[in-house]
Amino acid sequence: MDPEQIYYKSTRSNDAGITSAQAIVKGMAPDGGLYVPEAMPSLDMPVCCYSGMDYPELAYKIMSRFLTDFTEDELRQCIMKAYDEKFDTPLVAPVVKAQDVFFLELFHGATCAFKDMALSLLPHLLTLAVQKSGTGREIVILTATSGDTGKAALESFSNVPGTKIIVFYPSKGVSLVQERQMITQEGANTFVCAIEGNFDDAQTGVKEIFGDMDLNKKLDANNMMFSSANSINIGRLIPQVAYYFNAYIRLLEKGEIAENEEINIVVPTGNFGNILAAYFAKTMGLPVNKLICASNENNVLYDFINTGVYNRMRELKLTMSPSMDILISSNLERLIYELCDRDPVKLSGLFSELADKGVFEIDEEMKEKLSDFWGGYATEKQTLNAISEVYRNHNYLIDTHTAVAYYVYREYAESTSDRTKTVIAATASPFKFPGSVIKAISNNPSEYSGLDEFGLLEKLSLLTGIEVPAPLRGIGSKKILHNNYCTIDSMKDFVTRSLGI
Ligand SMILES: *Cc1c(COP(=O)(O)O)cnc(C)c1O
Asked: Which of 241, 273, 211 has its CA nearest to residue 26?
């Protein structure tokens, strides 16, 4: 095999590697594992040489190390179409300094959350990948969402020829703004359904549908196939690696850090996709000291990082940071794979324990390798206080997810006295969660008690003098186009009905 080529293999077997195009089309490996690069690519030049490149150029440099079966022209075309005027700034992901920390703003895309960073690219990669792999089939994107992925995926796949997209979201467990964004989605190829249950139920249901042999045969007979827009798809993760390099380069250009100086990265975490992308960046050669994993009250990852025990046997709490209300963090599997020295047998053992008993513990050797990470969590009250503190002291408005990260960073800095320059991933616009944000920053929150989330959106703008982002303007009066509800057991029926098969 060409040593410059990167192939992808499953975390759960040693089956022969496939190309990135094939991995992107499949979404998930047939054995239930996730695709990972057979060897982690490295940079083609020292990090500081990327200085001066704009976002698309940098994205090309990083992504081309992973997607070696795409031509330069193909990849550049995809990137150009992804990071265009859908983003409200040509910087795509600006870095903002607030006193002693830097916020990497990942919410300037079409749906105001970081999911846009990868999902504005994925449809382009996927349609090309389908052509390359020569299947000629219609792609059915099946997605479970904790709130933000759903809308970002709907928006990006809407009316893309050769695709249909079906999104399941937990009926209780997304914000009103998030829900309204999804159920007002236009596009004849889009299908949206609320489910009775939480995000983990939705994700498990979707994984089962992926693995359902009969249903897959039925799709096959209709010249269709499933793929995924969740971060289990490697095509979601790779574009995310680029923005961590972007953050580093911007700090370097501004003279905030010296060449090769290490930074910390704090990520508000749910499904472990975003922080895994930062880990990939570190593995490729980005100078990173600690990866700080911030959880809300669903602190299963905090426990894991601190004890080596992953235990999902607990009640899922609904918090004001709903996109992190997750107990089964899919992408942790890719980290565990690295921790166990890429041993699919050992990994499969751990994950069958998780499936059977709801808990596994990694051994001492694996625990040692977890030292790249630091884990913390914020309670609801601490989250509100963080929003208020950053707004009052730094005149900077953050959303509830970013607030969890900020709180955990403060705790990290206090308990370690590490003063490494730190980048916090700002994952959503505060206008997606106006109720909680107003509650945090208003001197008189009761003044707003009669208003719904859509009214609060306007009030938040008045209160802060910040304009409502264009994609959220007037969202409360948009026409509702999807009105579906089903139980976990009837998710499959919703799929077949939507597809007309
Ligand atoms: C999805 C999401 C997260 C969690 O990201 P993961 O990749 O699932 O860990 C955090 N914040 C916001 C706003 C999100 O939409």
From this structure: 211
CATH number at residue 349: 3.40.50.1100
Which domain range does residue 325 map to? 98-107+236-464
Q: What is the pLDDT of residues 394-435, one digit of tens each?
A: 999 999 999 999 999 999 999 999 999 999 999 999 999 999
Decide if 241 contacts 285 (C-beta within 8 A). no
Quote the number of domains for the chain.
1
Is the model's pTM score more than 0.85?
yes
Residues in the chain with pLDDT values less than 70: 1-3
270 lines ligand 1 (CB under 6 A): yes
Atom of ligand 1 nearest to the CA of 326: 8
Q: What value does the CA radius of gyration of the chain take, rounded to a whole number of Å? A: 21
Residue range 48-70, pLDDT digits in tens: 999 999 999 999 999 999 999 99
Residue 294 forms part of a structural domain: yes
Q: Is 295 in the pocket of ligand 1 (CB under 6 A)?
A: no
The answer to the question of residue 349 being in a domain is: yes
Asked, for residue 390, whether it belongs to a domain, the answer is: yes
Q: Cβ(271) to ligand 1 under 6 A?
A: yes
CA atoms within 13 A on the CB side of 417: 0
Q: Where are the alpha helices (DSSP H) in 266-343?
A: 273-284, 300-307, 332-339
Q: Would you call 391 helix, strand, or coil by DSSP?
A: helix
Residue 312 falls inside a structural domain: yes
- Ligand 1 contacts CB of residue 236 (under 6 A): no
CA 323, 391, 467 angle in degrees (round to 5)? 75
Q: Token pair for residue 476?
A: 């409360």
